Amino acid sequence: MRRLRNQTFALAAAVVAATLGPLGAVSADTDVVEYRQSVMQLLEGHVDAIMTVVRGQVAFTDHVVAHAESIEQLSQNMVDLFPPATGPDTLPTNALQQVWSNPNGFQTATLALQQAATNLSLAAQSGDQLAIAQEFNNLRRAGCDACHSSFRRRPSQ
Ligand code: HEC
Fold first, then answer.
1. Any residues with Cβ below 6 Å from ligand 1, and which?
2. Cα(65)–Cα(68) distance, rounded to whole angstroms?
């Protein structure tokens, strides 16, 4: 039994090691890029979910509040995701150098998303379908797209 437990432990440790990869081989800055891209994917997931509701494909209108509030929360500390030394001069990233050369503009862009998410959350709480659709379009345009067009390298480039 004891032997079995040891074997189980060794197996668990091997699984953890395989999942984490060789510790220390990956630089922390690379991890930051991976982390921020994951957060962006989360935003994309919320936007996709809301879009399905707004198009009337599913009737989960009452879920929109949770998605809008999640976007709002994720946008609150977005600047943290772009620390110095994580730009395109040093790492593979689609963030443009402008994120660091124009920090005020970048912060303003994060605030625009935050504001748009607040507005969408309020519209969702009111349950007004038209207002939800309008605020959602605004969030994508003034929140996501506005920042991407100034601060993100287009994926096709
Ligand atoms: C303040 C600027 C800013 C805002 C606002 C913003 N993004 Fe981004 N986004 C970026 C930058 C910069 C990158 C490139 C990150 C990188 O490659 O390191 C990015 C990358 C992405 C990616 C690609 C992630 C990957 O796997 O490489 C997706 C998807 C994305 N954003 C979705 C969204 C959505 C959806 C919203 C709105 C809800 C949003 N973003 C709002 C700046 C922003």
1. 33, 36-37, 40-41, 43-44, 47, 71, 78, 93-95, 99, 106, 109-110, 113, 143-144, 147-148, 151-152
2. 5
